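Box 3.1 — From sequence to structure: GSK3B interacting protein
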Amino acid sequence: NLCKRMEVDCNPDELLNKTSFEDDAEMRDFEGMDGKDMRLEAEAVVNDVTFAVAVMYVSKKLPSAEDVAYINVETKERNRYCLELTDAGLRVVGYTFDEINESLKTPYHETVYSLLDSLSPAYREAFGNALLQRLEALKRDGQS
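Predicted structure (token representation):
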């Protein structure tokens, strides 16, 4: 599919709405996020990808802070995960909602797109379909 071919690591709408003149502040990696509240970052992460998962929300049970937040996600395959968001990135910390398994040593992902791409083929398909629909809409708009 188009996303895999392009090896894109961003939201399809962001990809197509970006221009080289725009401020790329939101595209910086996690190392440049000093001063950001992870609770707000977590909400933004959720809003970016809810179209491609079954359920996703910031945990209300696990403690969020300026430097860490937890996100519950259920993929379209019905697999549940608890994700940790820190300056280092996102990683799976549990295999059910609101669970932190200290013994898990899962890798950090720089973006939620990369993490979900590794967990869910249905996410990858939904992302690719959204990108193709957006491209078709742009093509139609350009022809009118």
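Summary of the box: DSSP finds five helices and four strands in the chain.
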